[in-house]
Amino acid sequence: MEGRMRRTLDSGLEDAEAQAPLSGSNGLAVSAVIKYGDNIVKVYSTSVAIFLTAFVSVHMFGFTLTPTFYIGTMIVSIAIYLHYVGKPQQPQK
User: Fold this and answer.
1) Domain ranges of the chain
2) Quick one: where is this thing mainly located (predicted)?
3) Where does the pLDDT of residue 35 fall: very low under 50, low under 70, confident under 90, or very high at 90 and above?
4) Among 15, 16, 33, 54, which residue's CB has the most CB atoms within a 10 Å radius?
């Protein structure tokens, strides 16, 4: 029984080691957004974090993304672009 449990834990260790830095960097990015951004930026940054995690998962774990995911990525990217293009420029001091 102990040998089987050890193999199970060892097989998941590489996945955990890969996910720990991703989760840590995601936490740092979220804390920076919370400190300096407004609500809409927080929503967009969460969406971008989900997309980046999905693309990293494709390369690391061999996941396949659906066309629906790509359509959602395109919609969110266009929304982010339109949000920042529509903002008036702040006068420089």
Assistant:
1) 2-85
2) membrane
3) confident
4) 33
